[in-house]
Amino acid sequence: MVNTIIYLLLFTFSLPASSEMHAFHISRTEINYDVQSGDIQIASHIFIDDLENGLALSGVKDIRLCSPKESIEADHILEQYANSKLKITLNGVVMPAKLIGKEQSKDLLAVWCYLEISNVKNVHQLNIENKILIDLYNDQKNITEVTKNKKRVLFTIFDSEKIKDMCNM
Question: Which of 158, 118, 112 is nearest to 139 (CA)?
Answer without folding.
Answer: 158
